[in-house]
Amino acid sequence: MKLHAWIFAAAAALLPLAASGQDAKKWKPYQFVGNERYEYKMVLREGDEKKEMGFVLDIRKKGAEEWDVTWSTKTAMKKAEGPEVLMGGLGMGVSPAFFLMNPLFGAFLEQVELKEGEKMSLFGAGVVKVTKKEEVGGRTGFVCDLYTKQDDKDLLAWSCTVDPALALPIRSITYEEGKEKQRMDLVGYKKD
Q1: Which of 67, 89, 99, 123 could make a disulfide contact with 182, Cβ separation 3.0–4.6 Å?
Q2: Could you tell me the CATH number of the domain that includes residue 105?
């Protein structure tokens, strides 16, 4: 495990303690209300190659304490491809939802006050900055950028746009060595 991953894991455990005295409005990830449908466009980049997919998450109330959850992926495939069909087009058995929001990063975002210009230090391992508001998929949210320390420089590792009324980000972009690696953009949200 890289040192940065270990520091983030330790910091995530300490964050609720550090923020317990704050009264500011915060985002609550994964707080679904039920009977809602999230639809995303996903773009994966590998070098100069780009692959587009669709990802849908549908959450229905089954009872007072239960949900029916359905997710699906949509991607163009070549007839000769095999395991990729079974694995949702990724070919590695990873859910596209992992690229939407790593739960570790979600723990940091829960602690940030959602207002432009806000910053939160991650115990010397990096910083989260709320930079602006933007519209994605007909929703408005706050752009939260996660920078990690590498060789004494702050490098953008993840950018996430959060609509505080929704349980999931409306945009999520991961970066590797300063270049966009994966992107998920909300194209539709419906609650009935």
Answers
A1: 99
A2: 2.40.360
Instruction: Give the count of domains, the chain.
Output: 1
CA separation for the pair 175, 62 (Å, rounded) = 37
Question: Closest Cα partner for 183 from 106, 100, 103?
Answer: 100
CB 158 within 8 A of CB 105: yes
> Which strands sit side by side in the sheet containing 139-150, from one edge to the other?
66-75, 49-63, 36-46, 179-191, 171-176, 153-162, 139-150, 126-136, 119-121
Beta bridge partners of 63: 66
- Compute the Cα dihedral for 169, 118, 151, 19 and give only its sign: negative
Please tell me the pTM assigned to this model. 0.78
| Angstrom distance (rounded) from CA 142 to CA 15 | 20
Domain that holds residue 54: 3-191
Q: How far is CA 170 from CA 4, 13, 56, 80, 135, in A?
A: 26, 26, 13, 34, 9
